[in-house]
Amino acid sequence: MFTLLTTVVSFLAGNTPKFLEFFQQKSDQKHEVALAQLQMTQQLELQKAGFVAQKDLEEIKFNELKIQTDSDNYKAKISDVNSARLNDTETSKGASTWVVNVRALVRPAITFGLFAIFLFVELFGCWYAYYNGVDFKVALDLLWDNETQIVWASIVGFYFGTR
Known about the structure:
Layout: H1 2-14, H2 16-49, H3 52-92, H4 97-104, H5 106-131, H6 136-143, H7 146-160
Helix pairs in contact: 1-7, 2-3, 5-6
């Protein structure tokens, strides 16, 4: 049960940015709905006055506005990514190439190192149990206990929950 809970929490932690983006989209959509209502009111008034061709023109303008808004949002996202890269580049300015490369490898090296330690402990435990005649079920219960399952589920949920 605790394994399931930690998996769900890890999955949610990986999705936090998307969760926050949901509220931003909700606000944007509320604005778009208000704008659409105003345009519908305008179109109804134009139709009452006999300007049906104006309705088509307003629809084209609305679509252009929507496309421009989507384009601006996309540009803003790209700008955020480029800003993060620029900030990373600014902090690396003047440093030698190997320092920049080592700095970029810190997190992957720690992750792979911890995974290698985990794998070594588990495989060595299997080997030790096999050569000492420990029953497979007993060895499996010792090597793949609840705590190990919780840690493993948390890591997998966090790293792969958003992919």
